[in-house]
Amino acid sequence: MAMQYEEIRTKPVRAHALSLSERRRLSISGVEDVEAFDEERVVLSTAGGDLTILGSGLKIEKLSLDGGELLVEGQIDGLHYAQQTANRRGLLGKLFG
User: Fold this and answer.
1) What's the pTM?
2) Where would you tag: which of 40, 66, 72, 80 has the fewest CB atoms within 10 A of its CB?
3) Bridge partners (DSSP) listed for residue 27
4) Which residues pair with 25 in a beta bridge?
5) What is the pLDDT of residues 1-54, one digit of tens each?
6) Whole-angstrom distance, CA of residue 36 vs CA of residue 17
């Protein structure tokens, strides 16, 4: 008699943290996906909720979705968290999904 089992895959729970240096360098952990970005706005999903970064001259210097890390440089004027919405696919998911 063969046993049947179902493989269950869950996302590992990642710690979410922000580190801002002189409003010019923002390091974020717990990043799950990047939804959109340009020089004035970066929108991403994190373990702590959806986050929008506002500023000017923003550049993504480092992105590791496997490690959940993001480094943004530029003039950072604001950070805004929003409620997470279910079943949303980010920019990278739309491109490669």
Assistant:
1) 0.73
2) 66
3) 19, 71
4) 21, 73
5) 555 655 545 555 678 999 999 999 999 999 999 999 999 999 999 999 999 999
6) 20
